[in-house]
């Protein structure tokens, strides 16, 4: 597809004449905490593990690690696949396990070590997925192709191959997991590896990723978890990273790990330090524009939390939404996915994360993370429309929203907005009427107040900006220094700059530097904010699909 066509297919709505700005009042009480705000945004992942060691992958891993070094996690599929390490769409390999002509195992950690080394050197830790099945261990029928031939545009079901089958020998499967875990402990140290997450497989409740029965998966899971724990007794283990909330498959899994007979040990239950399920939105293309499906996304989260909360033995376990995204396939093109390059993706991210935090409070569950399944696709056309965080080494606007998340403090403050769409309405109907203009506010130990606000609507069409007045109380008597960070069509947005260049297929070095500058998140000039009776008022305009963060620093003289 030519660059001009890509720009059209994956652009944002044109700027037409729109009504006057809508007035919204946001109130923040900086003296009243409503509880902790866990940094659930710190998890990322991708199908293609080998991209992490390539030029743009290394840069992006470093950018992610810089968000909060040592606290960022990356989950990748295909880490146990047989192959030479050449990446492809929805594919990767490490050749970690092969067998000689006599069936004797051969272990080779060279490629997978390079991937993990890349993470750790850049402040990122593994959320280590134990999968998929090495070719020599697959129980798939003879003649079944191992690597799939899927490519963008093909039916999703064509990703299958013998990599998604149960092992023909569970003892060899367990020994592989044990040897790999032991190797990681020897290479990186037990103190490091016990910070990692270990989980088995991906979406075993559907035929695309698992061709065995639910009971065979339980056996796969038990034997792998036992092998990890034999190598590192206090390793953090869990799963099962089901598609959606998991239905009857998840019910059976939860019952099994809580009180079933362990396939590896014969004891009751399986060690479980965290639980994981997936939640996705469902965008569509209507009347010439993208319409997001945030309601579907949040309903999935709501159902998943309820399912876990209903199991007494497990309802206090940390939960990771192991893939939490606007839709289900990062590499899949389509008009309905034209939200990805611009500010629709970034405003959706702000609005959806806020409601995921709210849903965790509603169900009183221990939410540890919501993993964004987006990375980068190496050496693809500029702004090709994949769900990613960067294109050809240039950040997309959505990555800058994660930089804003990283500026939030640990304590959530009492906040209201006259423009907020209620959680109940958003779950039932999405944001199809009045836009969602809302905020989260936090405070840190130094007294810094951070206010994240957004202006979101499901429909990617032009609309009026929001004229927002933020009334902050509880600040004390001293003045504050205010810094404002923006992500919108004209701030921290390389896509707008690329289109203004004429959507070049291959930007030269000068234009590349211009795109890098356009993508950079920078603060407005700082301002001194006076307080009266501990109160301050801030007026600003937030364009449709824009996100803004305001920091109020104490101690200004």
Automatic annotation (TrEMBL):
The entry's keywords: Glycosidase, Hydrolase
Domain Glycosyl hydrolases family 39 N-terminal catalytic: 25-533
SUPFAM superfamilies found in the cross-reference section: (Trans)glycosidases (SSF51445), Glycosyl hydrolase domain (SSF51011)
Protein source organism: Sphingomonas mollis
Family indicated by similarity: Belongs to the glycosyl hydrolase 39 family.
UniProt cross-references to PANTHER family, sorted A to Z: ALPHA-L-IDURONIDASE
Protein known as: Beta-xylosidase
Signal peptide boundaries: none
Keyword hit for Hydrolase: yes
InterPro entries linked to this entry: GH, GH39_as, GH39_cat, Glyco_hydro_39, Glycosyl_Hydrolase_39
């Amino acid at each position: 597809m030519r660059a001009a066509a890509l720009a059209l297919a994956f652009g944002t709505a044109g700027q037409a004449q729109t009504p006057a700005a809508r007035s919204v009042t946001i109130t923040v009480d900086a003296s009243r905490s409503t509880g902790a705000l866990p940094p659930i945004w710190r998890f990322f992942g991708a199908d293609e593990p080998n991209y992490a060691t390539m030029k743009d992958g290394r840069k992006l891993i470093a950018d992610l690690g810089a968000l909060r070094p040592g606290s960022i996690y990356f989950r990748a599929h295909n880490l146990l696949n047989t192959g030479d390490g050449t990446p492809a769409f929805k594919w990767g390999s490490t050749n970690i396990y092969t067998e000689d002509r006599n069936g004797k195992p051969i272990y080779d950690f060279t490629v997978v070590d390079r991937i993990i080394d890349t993470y750790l050197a850049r402040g990122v830790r593994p959320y280590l997925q134990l999968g998929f099945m090495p070719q020599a261990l697959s129980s798939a029928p003879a003649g079944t192709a191992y690597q799939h031939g899927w490519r963008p545009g093909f039916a999703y079901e064509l990703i299958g191959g013998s990599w998604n089958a149960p092992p023909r020998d569970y003892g060899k499967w367990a020994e592989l997991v044990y040897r790999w875990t032991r190797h990681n402990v020897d290479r990186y140290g037990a103190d490091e590896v016990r910070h990692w997450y270990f989980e088995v497989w991906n979406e075993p409740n559907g035929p695309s990723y698992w061709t065995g029965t639910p009971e065979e998966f339980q056996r796969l899971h038990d034997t792998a978890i036992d092998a990890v724990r034999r190598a590192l007794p206090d390793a953090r283990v869990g799963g099962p990273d089901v598609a959606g909330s998991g239905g009857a498959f998840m019910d059976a899994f939860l019952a099994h790990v809580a009180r079933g007979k362990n396939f590896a040990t014969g004891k009751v239950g399986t060690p479980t330090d965290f639980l994981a399920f997936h939640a996705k939105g469902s965008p569509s293309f209507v009347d010439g524009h993208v319409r997001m499906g945030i309601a579907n996304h949040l309903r999935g989260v709501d159902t998943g939390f309820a399912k876990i909360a209903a199991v007494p033995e497990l309802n206090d376990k940390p939960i990771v939404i192991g893939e939490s995204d606007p839709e289900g396939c990062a590499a899949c093109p389509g008009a309905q996915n034209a939200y990805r390059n611009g500010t629709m993706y970034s405003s959706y991210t702000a609005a959806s994360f806020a409601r995921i935090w709210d849903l965790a409070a509603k169900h009183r569950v221990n939410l540890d993370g919501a993993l964004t399944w987006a990375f980068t696709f190496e050496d693809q056309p500029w702004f090709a429309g994949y769900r990613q965080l960067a294109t050809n080494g240039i950040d997309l606007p959505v990555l800058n929203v994660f930089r804003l998340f990283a500026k939030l403090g640990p304590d959530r403050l009492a906040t209201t907005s006259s423009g907020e769409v209620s959680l109940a309405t958003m779950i039932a109907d999405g944001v199809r009427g009045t836009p969602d203009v809302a905020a989260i506010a936090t405070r840190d130990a130094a007294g810094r107040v951070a206010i994240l606000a957004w202006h979101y609507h499901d429909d990617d069409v032009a609309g009026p900006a929001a004229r927002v007045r933020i009334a902050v109380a509880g600040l004390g008597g001293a003045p504050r220094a205010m810094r404002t960070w923006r992500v919108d069509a004209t701030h921290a947005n390389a896509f707008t700059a690329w289109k203004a260049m004429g959507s070049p297929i291959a930007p030269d070095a000068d234009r590349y530097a211009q795109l890098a500058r356009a993508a950079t998140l920078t603060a407005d000039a700082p301002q001194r904010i006076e307080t009266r009776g501990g109160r301050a008022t801030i007026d600003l305009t937030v364009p449709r699909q824009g996100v803004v963060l305001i920091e109020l620093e104490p101690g200004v003289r």
